[in-house]
Amino acid sequence: MMRFWPKIATGLFGLLAFSPVQAGPKVTVLSPHWEGPKREFEAAFSRTYEKSTGRKVAVEWLDVGASSNIMAYVRSEFKSRPQGIGIDLVWGGGSIYYSTLAAEDLLAPAGLTGEDFAGIPPELAGNPLYDAQGLWFGAALGSFGILCNERVLERMNLPRPLSWADLAAPAFFSWVALADPRDSGTAHMMLELMFQSYGWEKGLDVVTRIGANARTIPRAASQIPMLVATGEVACGPCIDFYAWAKMAEVGPGRLEFILPTAETVVTTDPIAMLKGAPDPDLARAFIRFVLSPAGQRLWMLPAGAEGGPRRYTLGRLSVRPELYDELAGRMVMTYNPFRQAPGLNFNSGLAEERWQTLNDLFGALIVDPHPLLVRAWESVKDREAQSPAWKRLAAPPEDEAAFRKRTEEWKDPEKRGRTIAEWVGFGRAKYQSVLRMAGKEPGEWQAGLYRVVRGLIPAFMLGLVVIIPARRLWARWRTWRSRRER
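RESULT FIELD:
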């Protein structure tokens, strides 16, 4: 058999060399998207490209984590390689990230014509759907709401939440999950929506109590629908496509996605070509496909539907208004954002300004001292809402004017680290004071006694380690000596 391998290899080489389908190029995409969009768009684009050119194309996906990690990675790579970092496209995350990358001259014009995005409006409810200079394009839309497990709500006699503030109610204690905005652009957007809906002091109050109600705070926003679907929690802030995909997976009658209409927005999920892209023509072709009606139908239709994704239901809103009428009754989502756009007057400039500082504030006051926050909230949640201890729980470390001035400080890593440490200390001291006010924390002399006892524990353990073996050795020596004397 082995003597035939040279002939087989030669024949295979000949078939490949003279086949009308040639080995083709590769486009490299940096993206935080989950497996579904990657596999579906890769397969559909490859089929389209091969059909039109007769050549195969490969899509290489790079994953460095969430949107904030991508931002840091791109900036870091361009510092050492300012002409290009060997990546064609970046795809996914909020438009704020892309505006920042454009301002830092890290994106390249995609070179699309008006025909490529004809039918896509320039904005929706005041939010741009693509960059006026052609540096980025909204590939999909996203809205933010609350995903709920209907059976858990009924079993635990919990009210159906219609606003972010409803999740802060004492009834939802331990029945909420929300993601860490320091690791998730989606989670950050919902944090920003809460602050813009309620203002600085009430916003921090709502955010603090939702955080205190949280049974868990995972790093990835994609974990929220899993926790809700399994019934580990009743509700969680969630982006629409995670919600709709999970709803399609588990079937009707189990989950509900609720939009707090006056407290949310529809935003874009952009795609852009990076400066110095290795294959700009192929990158342009990929963007063109994503924006095309064929590409946009992949977001909207359930898996297995004609013209839809083959394996994964993606459940995202399209940037093309005409598709909502075309796919009515077949699409996964339940509303048309071009006719039912949420009503919050969102300040994107403010959101961009405090992106990092708001994330760090949440981490310092909610995530890092979370067990202590939960204990403090549990001790006062059933008291009168305006009692001193209740109000103390959500007291801000500074007023809004002082907080906004932190933006400039954040450019200095030392000042940023010092301020975060101050916020952490403030949060811990605040929650301990709430426990004392509620009579759940030991007084000063009990705390002093506790510190003394805690200090003696290492000495006691050392004694156990040293004295017990010493006593055994002493007993063995006495036994040996008595035997010798006999």
